[in-house]
Amino acid sequence: MSTTETSFYARASIDLRAALAEALPRETLRELQERRPSRHFLVLARMVVVLALATTGAAAFDRWYAWLPCSIVSGFTLFGFTVMLHEVVHNAVAASRPRLGRTLGWLYAFPSGISRTQFTRWHLDHHAQLGDADGDPKRHHLSPKRNARWLKALYPTPALFFIYFRAAARETRTYPPDVRARIARERAVTVLGQLGILATLVATAGGWLAFKVYMVPYFLVFPVAFVLNRLGQHYDIDPSDPAKWSTLMAPSRFWDFWFLWSSYHLEHHYFPTVPFYNLRRLHFLLVPFYKERGMTPRTYSHVLWEWFVKNRPPHANWTALDAADHARSTAP
Predict the structure, then answer these.
(1) For the residues of 257-311, what is the DSSP string, one character each?
(2) Is residue 329's pLDDT more than 90?
(3) For the purposes of burial, counting CB atoms within 10 Å of the CB of 291, is it exposed (0-12), middle (13-18) or buried (19 or more)?
(4) pLDDT digits 0-9 by tens, 238-291
(5) pLDDT tens for residues 16-33?
(6) Separation in Å, CA 188 to CA 34, 165, 182
(7) Would you give the distance in Å from CA 305 to the centre of its chain?
(8) Cα(53)–Cα(59) distance, rounded to whole angstroms?
(9) Residue 131: which residues within 8 A CB-CB, separation 6 or more?
(10) Sign, Cα dihedral of 138, 141, 144, 146
(11) Taking Cα atoms as reference points, which of 316, 269, 266 lies closest to residue 295?
(12) Would you say 112 and 82 are in contact if contact means Cβ atoms under 8 Å apart?
């Protein structure tokens, strides 16, 4: 869906794809696209170990300065499962094993309580219609429609779950009946499963432990990780240039670990079939391409400052807005 010539992005990016083909040799791209299931499952094993240790720490400690860092680690790790689901959506785990992909889709969708079918359809439509304010479901339904700080401040809070599920429901209403029914079944399983885990924790271990190991990671930390990650995707862009319809983020080993290389979102839209563990290498191979086009890497501190403090609108050219602000401030 993301590569058909009928999609908005495919039509708009013909020249871009030609330029990328010149910037990156075909043999190199083929090597970057090679799937290594063992590498994927090593990441999964790491996540499971980190989550287990963080959950154990949050349960064992009672002083806030001991359990809270553990809960924060748990929340960011739980968010990471959405990135793992994203890999499944792009068939970047093991192309020749579709049954494995379906199983992993269920596994990775469960921590965030979403439907794997809904996420797949939603995300592939996002790729296909990138740049179209109405056709891109993420932009059309999920991005704030009012550029107000109070509205932006709701996103990194538990209100995110209402905002996201309402956006997903609106888009789901446009799907065929059989797809809607499958999404409803999958969402019921994941949501009821999560509520069952929470109820079991409260009943067997008490509300305080459930608060530390479940409520804080899910309801307070997960939304922060989600919003921070999303700010580095398509908010600081140049609408006039398809090469800049995603935000170029600076490489960071810290965020490579916690966001599972999903900060390289621009690179991912250029080459969606490159597995996440190869995106950092892809970034550095494309540095000459970025310099030739005058593209400047951003940091998360920069996009946070622009988004909340300067109150920049989404999907806009923040560089041009900064230049305009500077010109006004220095004008006689």
Answers:
(1) HHTTTTT-HHHHHHSTTS-GGGHHHHHHHTHHHHHHTT---B-HHHHHIIIIIS-
(2) no
(3) exposed
(4) 999 999 999 999 999 999 999 999 999 999 999 999 999 999 999 999 999 999
(5) 999 999 999 999 999 999
(6) 35, 13, 10
(7) 19
(8) 10
(9) 8, 9, 12, 239, 242, 245
(10) positive
(11) 266
(12) yes
How many beta carbons lie within 10 A of that of residue 186, not counting itself? Answer: 20
Q: Using CA atoms, how far apart are residues 129 and 47, in angstroms rounded to an integer?
A: 32
Those residues whose C-beta lies under 8 Å from the C-beta of residue 154, and which sit 6 or more positions away, are 160, 163
| Reported confidence tier of residue 1, pLDDT bands at 50, 70, 90 | very low
User: Which positions ≥6 away from 170 have C-beta within 8 Å?
Assistant: 141
Identify the residue whose tokens are 């806030």.
64
CB–CB of 79/54 below 8 Å? no
For residue 196 the two structure tokens come to 């069952």
Residue partners of 68: CB distance under 8 A and separation at least 6 = 216
Identify the burial level of 148 via C-beta atoms within 10 angstroms of its C-beta, where 0-12 means exposed, 13-18 middle and 19 or more buried. Answer: exposed
What are the tens digits of pLDDT across the range 90-105? Answer: 999 987 777 888 899 9
> Torsion angle, CA of 122/123/129/132, rounded to 10 degrees?
80
Give 46-85 pLDDT, tens digit per residue: 999 999 999 999 999 999 999 999 999 999 999 999 999 9
